Structure formats: structure tokens, C-alpha cells
Amino acid sequence: MPIEAVTGALGAKTASEAGASETGAAPSTVNLRQEFAETGLAEVLDQLERELVGLAPVKGRIREIAALLLVDRVRRRMGLTVETPTLHMSFTGNPGTGKTTVALRMANILHRLGYVRKGHLVSVTRDDLVGQYIGHTAPKTKEILKKAMGGVLFIDEAYYLYRQENERDYGQESIEILLQVMENQREDLVVILAGYSDRMDHFFRSNPGFRSRIAHHIDFPDYSDPELLRIAELMLEKQNYRLSPAGQDALTHYIAARKTQPLFANARSIRNALDRARLRQAIRIFDADGVVGVEALSTIEAPDILASRVLKGDPAATA
Amino acid sequence: MRITQGTFSFLPDLTDDQIRNQVQYCIDNGWAVNLEFTDDPHPRNTYWEMWGIPMFDIKDAAAIMFELAECRKTYSGRMYIRLTAFDSSHGWESVKLSFIVDRPKVEPGFMIERQERGGRNIAYTTRSYAMNKPEGERY
């Protein structure tokens, strides 16, 4: 279990630190495992491991952050100085790689660690922050920031905030207010920016202030074929469906074929494909008329997937 | 003369931490906390001006403290600033808690005017010394 490994390593680290801190009534040793259990963090990290397929670098970074906050918590108890770390983050990655899903979890994790006081997530886009006329932007942005205080502000497709082609765009004003609050009220809220890699790179290049104020730049990698299949199975499981063995083979072919086509959006494409497969399954059962059992109602068969436009003309589809 | 209005008015002025805790208590009860200010300290003056727009949908006291700091930047030492917590639930729809968080440096107090009327009756009026000056220049 990787989480165990991380806590194991942490245990060793604090043990050595504990020797240096013999101050007053502060405890000289702290059981990090017990601390870990008290925060209920294991549950959240387990859930993350179970429900999010792949994303190794993301999970790694989340564990690092969790470990740092846990150690800080213990350090505070021992009377060591703790400086509030900057936890503003930027999530970059292709469409459908799980940025929003992870942001939601992040709010929960930070709350459990006591970094944010309330742990709610306020999800906004450009429209919520930027006004339509002069003097409209500042109150609008401040309003959103106030709502997010004590929690996490998630700005989806953050690159839209900055419109290079229009120098009088109000987005710039919003960015300035954001930067100011991100700097001065670090203990009150965490800002997470998300967007597609290339456009976010461009955004950060045009707004260097943003790049330096964000401590964690996390890149979400694309999913591999087996990971996408695993994601599909998880999605179906949640909706009480399952794939027949032939259906599974068909989906494997589908994923490989879909990847080569334009506008591939990772997990989102898979979700859409599954939604269409469910439609075809429904009409297949409907046309077959007669009595249906639970088994038939919850099984996605190969033809449901092979009928897809993506696999038309693919030799593998006929196999 | 120190003005006593609203909750906690006979206690020493609340510190920022105490204010924060009160605000969080209000938010946790589902009340909307707003900031108001005035330079007319008469107890019957119920219409104070609102600082910014009403603050609904706020989960953490930090947001109110942020606005309070902004309001103080503009009016501290020149106006009375108070916090009000409004309960919008059916049947209440009124302010549940209100207290002064900032006051002018010098509070000249009130004078009392006696008006002699027929039949040896006397009518009383209280009047703040600050009210002798026009609005905005009182403190």
C-alpha cells in the first residue's frame, strides 16, 4: 500500500525531529500514525486511490501536500514554528483528465488537514469573475472571493481571464484582485486554476505574477488504454451496468480507435461512448421483446459498442 | 460619552478575534452578516448606511473581517460601524444580533433640551453635540 509507505517514511522523519524540540510542556514525541488516523485522512486518500485511475503524479503530489500539512500540524503541537505554506495550485492537462474531480477532492483533503476552515469548493469561470462594464468587475470578483473564503476557489478554464487581443478587457482587473488576495490571505483561501496545458502555459507567460504565486503546478497526464478501460468499468459499475467479456474486447478496440480520432477527451469521451452504448443496449432489449431479466438489463454486449461510428471500417471491429 | 447601542455595548470594545468569533457564530446559525455605518449616533436613528452589498452565501468569517478592514480603512475614527446579523427564516425576518465594532475617536455625547409646555408639562429632546455639524464632518 503506497500510503502506508509514505506514513512509514514520515514516522522516521518526525522521530528525528522530535529529539530537537524539548520545549516546555509540548509533547516530545507524537505518534504520527495516530495523528494520521485522527484526521480521517487515510479514508480520503484511500478513496482517491480507489476511485481515480492512473494519475500517478497527481496522487504523488497530493500525498506530499498531505504529508507536509500533517507534519506541520504535529510541529505546531510541539511548539516549533510553522509558516503557512502556499497551497495555490494550477492543474493543467488535456480535456477529460480529471482536473475538476481532483479539485473537489482537494477541498476535502485540505479541510481534513485543517488547512482550510470550511472545506467547501466554489467553482467559477470567467463569467463569474469578470464584469460587463467599468466598475462591475471588482465587486463581482470580491463577492466570489468572499464566498470562497474558508474553502477552495476553483477557476475552471482560467486562461479565459486574460484576453490578449483586447487590452481594455476587464479580465486584467480581476486578475489583479485575485493576485492580491492570493498573496495577502493565504490562510483564508486556496485558489486552484485549471485549464488545458498549452493555453495555461500561454496564460502564465502573459501573467508572470500568477506563476510565481502558485506553488504547485500539477500536470495531469493522459490516460493509457488499460486505464481508460478501467475507468469505463468504474463508470458502469456506478450505474449498475457491467460489460460482457465480448463487450470488454469491443471496448478495448473502441478505445484504441477513438484515440486516433480528433477531439479525443480522455475519460469524457469514454463517458459519452458509454452513454451511447446504453442507448443502443436499450433499443436492442426493446426490439428483442419478451421477458428480460436483471442480467440482460445490466449487461452491455459487444454489438452495443461495435455499432459505433468510430469503429466503422475498422478491421478489428469485425473480429 | 461612550455610546452604548446593541449587544455587548456595556463591555469594552471587542477585539478582532472576538468579533471574528461572533461573526462565525452568526454565519453558523445561517444569518447574513452585514456592515453598516453612520455619523448620526442618536439611538432612534435606525437607518444606518450599508457598507457594500448584503453579504449572503458566505461560509467563513474571514470574508466579513476582510470587508470590515476595508470599511475601517475608509471610515475608522470618523463613523460608527456596526455589524448586523439578519435572520431570513420565515417568521423572523429580522436582525437577530447587532453590535458596534468601530466608533469615532471623540464622542462628544448628548445634550438634553427641555421644552416647557402648557400646564407646566415638560417635553424632553436628546440631541448629539456632533449633530451641530453637517453630515460627513461630524467626527
Could you characterize the architecture of this molecule?
- The complex is a heterodimer of chains A (319) and B (139).
- Chain A has 319 residues and is an alpha/beta fold.
- Chain A is built from 16 helices and 7 strands.
- In chain A, the strands form 2 sheets. A 5-stranded parallel beta sheet of chain A has the order 2-3-4-1-5, sandwiched between helices.
- In chain A, helix 11 (225-238) packs across helix 12 and helix 11 (225-238) crosses helix 13 (266-287).
- Chain A is globular.
- Chain A starts with a helix and ends with a helix.
- In chain A, 35% of the residues are buried.
- With 139 residues, chain B is an alpha+beta fold.
- Chain B is 20% helix and 29% strand.
- Chain B contains 2 helices and 6 strands.
- Chain B has helices at 16-28, 61-75; strands at 32-38, 49-50, 80-87, 94-102, 110-116, 122-128.
- In chain B, a hairpin with a 5-residue loop joins strand 5 (110-116) and strand 6 (122-128).
- In chain B, helix 1 crosses helix 2 (61-75).
- Chains A and B meet through helix 7 of A and helix 2 of B.
SSE diagram, text form:
The complex is a heterodimer of chains A (319) and B (139).
Chain A: H1 2-18, H2 32-39, H3 41-51, H4 56-77, E1 89-93, H5 99-112, E2 121-124, H6 126-129, H7 137-148, E3 152-155, H8 171-184, E4 190-195, H9 197-206, H10 208-213, E5 216-220, H11 225-238, E6 242-243, H12 245-260, H13 266-287, H14 294-297, E7 299-300, H15 302-306, H16 315-318
Parallel strand pairs in A: 1-4, 1-5, 2-3, 3-4, 6-7
Helix pairs in contact in A: 3-5, 7-8, 11-12, 11-13
Chain B: H1 16-28, E1 32-38, E2 49-50, H2 61-75, E3 80-87, E4 94-102, E5 110-116, E6 122-128
Antiparallel strand pairs in B: 1-2, 1-3, 3-4, 5-6
